[in-house]
Amino acid sequence: MVSTEACNSRSFSWLVKSCLPNPHPDARRKSGFVSRAVAEKVPPDNQRYCASISSLPDDLLLECLSRVSPSSLPSVALVCRRWSRFVASTELYSLRRANGHLRPTLYAVAVSDFGVLSASHGLEPGRPWKTVLFTGAAPAEGLEASSLAHARLVALDSSVYVLGRNASMRYHTWSETVSPRAPMIHHRKKFAAAAVAGRLYVAGGCRAAAVEEYDPASDTWHVVSEAPRKRYGCIGAAADGVFYVIGGLRIGDGCRTAAAASSSTFPPRGEAHVYASSMDLYDVGAGAWMRGRQVPNGGCVVAACGAGGHVYVLASHAVELSFWRCEGRRSAGAAFGEWGRLRPPPVPAQVRLDGTVRFCCVGVGESAVALVQVVGSIDDLLRRSGRSERGHRDGLVLVYDCRSGEWNRGPDLPEVLSRAGCVSAEC
C-alpha cells in the first residue's frame, strides 16, 4: 500500500532534491572518483533501497522548511499532507521566528458572495500588493458573506481570523487556505477584538457585557469576564498582556424605543462623549479590569491599534484630527498610561472620519503604524499627493514611522478590495 503522505518528487526544487540520495551510486565508482575501499562497501543490487523525502525525520524536515522563502510556502503546502501539516504547525512558526525568518506583513481581507479576497504587502518601497482570490470559498465552506458583514480581523502568528456576527473563519497566510472556525457565543456587530497571549478576545457590540476568549488549539469560545461598560462601535487593541476596549457608544440596558431612536439625547450627549474617548483595560493574565484611561482633549476615537508596547489612537474632532500614543508597557512604572501627542496624518483638515471616510489602524511590527482608508473618498488629498484623477473611493495607505515620527505614503490598496478589513501578520 502506498502511504497517503508519500511525496511526488517530479517538481521538487533544488533544496528538496539536495536532500534525496543519489539515484545512480555506481556512476562515480565506475568513473574512478571513488577509492576501492569505499567502492567495496557499496551493497549489492539486491540489498539496495531507494529512500524518499518522506523518510526524513521531522526535525530535519522542519529545519529545511524553515529556510524556504515566504513566497514558496503555499507551494510547499501542496506537496503532501505531511508537508501541509508542518506548514500549518506552531513548531515551524517557532523555528522560523527563532531563526529570524519572519517579517511583519500588512494584510487586507474582504468577503463577498463570490469568495474571499486577500491582499498582502510588506511595506517595501516600490513593490505592489499581492492579491489572492479564493473563488467560492465562503459558500463552499458554509460561510455566507452576510454572516461576515462588519467582521473584525485579528492576526495570531501566521493566521488571520475573520470574526463575523454569527460566523468565523481562519485564513492561513503561509498555505493560503481558508477554513471555517467556531462562531462567537454572542452575536456581535462593530465590536472590539484583539489577540493577547496566544488567544483572541472580543467585547462589546451586543446587549451582553460578556468578554469572550477564543482558544485556537481547541477551536472553542469561553466567557471569561464582564466588561465594566457596554459599548457599540468600539475598537480593540493589545499591548503587554492587556486587552484594550476603546471608544464607541453606550448600549442601554433596556430596549430602545422608536421615540428614543429619533431623540438626539439618546444616549445622553455627555455620556456618549465619555464613551467615545475612553478605554477599558482588561488584564488577561490576572483576569481583572484595570483603571480606565481617557483620550486627552476628548474627540471621538475612530481608529486604534497596538505596536511596540504602545497603543496608538486616531481621534476625530470638529475641525481637526489628532494622533496619540499611550504608554502600554507596565514595566515603565509611573509612566504607564501616559499620553503623548504625535504628528497627525497628512489628511486635509476638512475631512471628518465618520461614516463617510473611515480608516483602519494597524500596527505593523514594532516600529510602524499603517492607516488604510477602507471607506470614503478624499479627492482633495489625492490631488495634493500628485494624482490628477478623481473618484478613487478607497485604498489610501499612510505609514507612520514610530522612530522618526514621520508619515510616508504607501502603495494604494487594490481597488477590487471593497470595505476590506486590515491587520498585520508575520510570514
UniProtKB/TrEMBL annotation:
SUPFAM superfamilies: F-box domain (SSF81383), Kelch motif (SSF117281). It comes from the Eukaryota. It holds the Pfam family Kelch_1. InterPro entries: F-box-like_dom_sf (IPR036047), F-box/kelch-repeat_ARATH (IPR050354), F-box_dom (IPR001810), Kelch-typ_b-propeller (IPR015915), Kelch_1 (IPR006652). Residues 50-96 form the F-box domain. PANTHER family: F-BOX/KELCH-REPEAT PROTEIN SKIP4 (PTHR24414), OS03G0415400 PROTEIN (PTHR24414:SF60). This is F-box domain-containing protein. It comes from Aristolochia fimbriata. The lineage of its organism: Eukaryota, Viridiplantae, Streptophyta, Embryophyta, Tracheophyta.
